[in-house]
Every structure is written in structure tokens, then in C-alpha cells.
Specification:
Blueprint lengths: L1 E7 L4 H5 L12 H14 L4 E6 L3 H14 L3 E3 L16 H17 L12 H18 L4 E6 L1 H12 L16 E6 L9
Parallel strand pairs: 1-4, 2-3, 2-4
Antiparallel strand pairs: 1-5
């Protein structure tokens, strides 16, 4: 079994404001940096073998704090990014409702396949994220690995690997200073000889 530490990045000003971040490259705020330092101290002695992170700066900064505490390099993977919210990125929910009300209603009725303009559907983000984690599992059988990502992205991974319906992902979104530990059967590469 590979033990994955699914870690959400520290807080950003957009988290406080309720803006949809998606792929927008928003930095952590002062509280977020404190959260990242606290997470790093907590994980310093768990025996991590590797750190993987979204390449967006809020996740990358959180991963860097863990790197400083563990002396491990950070491997950035854009597949670990948050769901791409397209034209909705940077907007408040009320603004999305006001400007994209009909599409938002369609997405609420069919969240798995309807995407914001220029964004991703839930199924697309799941496939991207699972591809990244499967590669991590293949590289690190029976090891402990930190995966620093984003709230909805981590929720999608958690429901996928715990066998819940993907529609339950919204119930599993971690807070900014939270991480979850999942043990997942390692994918052991085979040599075709």
C-alpha cells in the first residue's frame, strides 16, 4: 500500500472573498503561509519519500514549506491543478449566477459533464487527476507521498479512491489547513520480458 497525504494549499485572499479560483494563479496570504508552515511541521517526521504538487503558486508554496521541513524536492505536476473554471475564475458565486444563470442551472443538474465556458467538467478533471496519482503510485510503491493540491481536486480524488460516487465530491472538500491520509494499493510496474 502507498500512503498518500492529500494536502490542501494554505488560504488565499480569494478563499476569504469566496471567489472561484480554478486555474487562476492566486498566491497564499499571510494566514495561508502560516498554515503551510504548520502543515510542514506536522509532516516533517512522518517519513515522506516524495512531494508532488500542483504547479499553481498557492499549492507550490505549500509544498515548498514541506520541502524545507523534509529536505525533499518538490515535483510539480500541472495535472494536480484545481478544476478549471474557465470564464468563471475570479468571480463570486453571485456574479456567476447573475451572468451565467442558465448555464449554472444546467451545470447543477448535470455537474459531471457540463463545464463553464473555457473550463473543465468534473469528469474531465477526475480523469486528469487520477492519471497523475496513478503515475505517483507506480513510482512510489509502499512509500509515503505528499500530494499538495486544491480543495475540489482533492475531494474528487478522495471519493474516487474510496469508492464513493463522484457526485459526493462536494461533501469532501477539505479546509485550507487540512490534509487527509489515504492508503491506496500500489501500482507495481511489470516488465514485459
Amino acid at each position: 500500500m502507498t500512503t498518500l497525504y492529500f494536502i490542501r494549499h494554505g488560504q488565499t485572499d480569494w478563499n476569504i472573498e469566496g471567489r472561484w479560483q480554478g486555474h487562476a494563479d492566486v498566491p497564499m496570504n499571510a494566514r495561508g503561509r502560516q498554515q503551510a508552515a504548520r502543515i510542514a511541521r506536522s509532516l516533517a517526521d512522518v517519513g515522506l519519500a516524495a512531494i508532488y504538487s500542483s504547479d499553481l503558486q498557492r499549492a507550490a508554496e505549500t509544498a515548498q514549506a514541506i520541502s524545507l521541513a523534509t529536505h525533499l524536492p518538490v515535483r510539480h505536476d500541472p495535472r494536480l491543478r484545481e478544476i478549471n473554471q474557465g470564464e468563471w475564475q475570479g468571480l463570486l458565486a453571485s456574479q456567476v449566477q447573475a451572468h451565467y444563470g442558465e448555464l449554472l442551472r444546467k451545470r447543477q443538474q448535470d455537474p459531471l459533464t457540463i463545464a463553464p465556458p473555457g473550463g473543465e467538467s468534473v469528469l474531465q478533471v477526475r480523469d486528469r487527476l487520477v492519471s497523475a496519482v496513478e503515475d505517483i503510485l507506480a513510482r512510489h510503491p509502499n512509500e509515503r507521498v505528499a500530494v499538495v493540491s486544491h480543495g475540489f481536486a482533492l475531494a474528487v480524488l478522495q471519493v474516487h479512491y474510496q469508492g464513493y460516487p463522484i457526485e459526493k465530491a462536494w461533501d469532501f472538500i477539505p479546509s485550507n489547513d487540512e490534509w487527509r491520509v489515504l492508503e491506496i494499493a500500489s501500482v507495481i510496474p511489470t516488465n514485459n520480458i
